[in-house]
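Let us practice reading a record.
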Amino acid sequence: MAITRMKTNSILAIALLVAALSSCKSDVCDTPFGEGGVFDLSLPSFSPLIPVGGTMVIHYDNYGFEVGHRGIFVRHATLYEFVAFDCTCPKDHDIALQPADGWDGAVLECPACGSKFETEYGNPLDGAETSCPLYPYTAHYDGGYVLEIYN
């Protein structure tokens, strides 16, 4: 009886250990991010951002400094509002997200893991390899041509 109980306890302990090791690990949303910058929207290089709904990935500010960890995705959301997210994939920090084909800047996609993220709030879409959202930046628009993006 004691041997049977030890075997049962051992089997149960092994089963719990296997289950714990094979279960999905919870995401640790520690995506690295970089610095923002100041952008003069009157420059031709930023013309995709002029119309509401316009999007682009920015890698350098007006002074030639790199922005973001893997660039910053910017979307002109409403007349006076812009949204900005770091283009680093939350699952693989070495990979830069890209606008998904056919989505007109509404979705960013990781070319490595295939995760997709909506660009209104940066949340992962169904089927993403991670539950972590994109790192958001604060975007301040002066109503003219100056857009400042910062942490």
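A brief commentary: The two ends are 64 Å apart (CA to CA).
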